[in-house]
Amino acid sequence: ITPKQNNISAPHFVMYVKEYLVNKYGEQAVEKGGLKVYTTLDWDKQVAGEKAVADGALKNLANNASNAALVAIDPKTGQILTMVGSKNYFDKSIDGQVNVAIRDRQPGSSFKPYVYLTAFTKGYTPETLIYDTPTNFSSGGEKDYKPLNYNGKFSGPLQMKDALAMSLNIPAVKTLYLAGVKDSISLAKGLGIGGLNQPERYGLSLVLGGGEVTLLDHVNAYGSLAAGGIKRDKTAILKIEDKNGVVLEQYKENPGQRIVEEKYVAMLDHIMSTNEYRAPVFGTNNPFKFNDRPVAAKTGTTNEFRDGWAMGFTPSIAVGVWAGNNNNTSMKEGADGIFVAAPIWRAFMDEALKNTAVEQFPKYEKEDAGKAVLNGDQAIQKDVEVCKKDKDEDNGEFCLANDTCREGTADKKDFGEIHDILHHVNKDDPRGDYPKDPKNDPQYKNWESGLQKWIKDNKKKIKNLDPMPTQECKIEFFNEPEPEPIPEPTPVVPEPVASPVVPVI
């Protein structure tokens, strides 16, 4: 469907609505039926969106990016407030009539929140300790899969909240393995993502944007997060009347469908709206920092810099921006979402949030998850009272102190070898029993070898402690104490006796 005139306002939105009408009521009814259509478009926000996209796309020419798109949705209703499908609908040089907002593009790291949210629903926490170390995720003779972080560096031990906020790739792939590819896709679809029907093709690369989504669906799903886990179908229609004034359809408020419990979304809100978590990578004064209100946000960048994304929300508005080239050619190296999409997103958000009430996200209530690794701690036993053994060192250098230890030999030490999370949890039931044999997990060896190599190369950053002793001390663990030597008797020399004094007469 193409417009017949060049002065059409909000052209991509109009064409989107027209296509909906044609599909539902037919071409004849749309062209000659006298339909009166009331839409959800917020004109002030549409103008702000078009300006933000046009200005940002112009600056992005320096990054070899010729186009951009923006969508805004009201999470409380599902109503589409803004749709800018390209920087200029009538610019043929960039295929401007193509509505990028409804075209499949890889989302990059902007997909990660769905995966971490899936992990939270299974019992993992924002504080869960995970290791950012070199890892080959292939198994069973598969082709090597060794993802890297954007800067090629490794951070070692960190918590999931930091890994997500800093958009580190290796912890994200580990989190996807823990959460499950199919379950992560199922949750993303429940929130509003369409497509993603080939989980076998995506594999663990899904969390790095290996599947394809539309900007419109992506914003709708982020809107479900903004609504605390409640999904409302996106809509562009408020009311449609026929030529006689008969209402053919009308928007009705609905409670929506709860997809995920609010307490899990609160974990995500907390991470995505806390600037200090993302600051080590994005800096303290990044485009996602708001001084006056909490705003959740995430970037995305795809391989070879083909797509840049900025996604975010408050409880009242969800906004997404895509930047790149319609023909899928690469932007300039280093054209990350934070540089090409986030400034557009921020310019729009500043306008959209003007003179609006400050709203808070549901409060994240931290809880004891029952395991050190889920609470953000290495599985270390501190200040254990032990004695050093003289014998039976095959079972460890130390035993648990008791009254068989020689007096004065007991000491307090810290114990606990450093292992990756699969050593401590069954991935599908992390708060359940410890694995009887963690090596049975097909990824265990891969994760452990990467971690132990990193520890070896970074001894100054992390201390690999002795394993916790399991044996109580026994007499046979110690050598017989050598008898104390009996001192030689000291000879007694009699004192001289003074001669009696004989008086002289």
What is this structure, in a nutshell?
This protein is an alpha+beta fold and 505 residues long. Among the domains are: 11-107 and 212-352, 3-Layer(aba) Sandwich (Beta-lactamase), CATH 3.40.710.10; 373-477, no CATH class.
Describe this structure in words.
- The protein has 14 helices and 17 strands.
- It is of the alpha+beta class.
- Among the domains are: 11-107 and 212-352, DD-peptidase/beta-lactamase superfamily (Beta-lactamase, 3-Layer(aba) Sandwich); 373-477, no CATH class.
- A five-stranded antiparallel sheet has the order 3-2-14-13-12, with helices on both faces. Strands 1-9-10 form a three-stranded antiparallel sheet, with no helix packed on it.
- It is elongated.
- The model has no long low-confidence stretch (mean pLDDT 92).
Query: CATH superfamily name of the domain at 11-107 and 212-352?
Result: DD-peptidase/beta-lactamase superfamily
The CATH architecture designation of the domain at 11-107 and 212-352 is 3-Layer(aba) Sandwich
Net shape: elongated
Strand line-up in the sheet with most strands: 3-2-14-13-12
- N/C terminus separation: 158 Å
Radius of gyration: 33 Å
Main sheet record: 5 strands, antiparallel
Secondary-structure content class: alpha+beta
Q: What order do the helices and strands come in, and which of them pair?
A:
Elements: H1 11-25, H2 27-32, E1 36-39, H3 43-60, E2 67-73, E3 80-84, E4 104-105, H4 112-121, E5 129-132, E6 156-159, H5 160-165, H6 169-179, H7 181-191, H8 199-202, E7 213-214, H9 215-226, E8 230-231, E9 237-241, E10 247-250, E11 257-258, H10 262-273, H11 275-282, E12 296-301, E13 307-314, E14 317-324, H12 337-340, H13 342-352, E15 381-388, E16 398-400, E17 411-415, H14 444-457
Antiparallel strand pairs: 1-9, 2-3, 2-14, 4-7, 5-6, 8-11, 9-10, 12-13, 13-14, 15-16, 15-17
Helix pairs in contact: 3-13, 4-6, 4-7, 4-10, 7-9
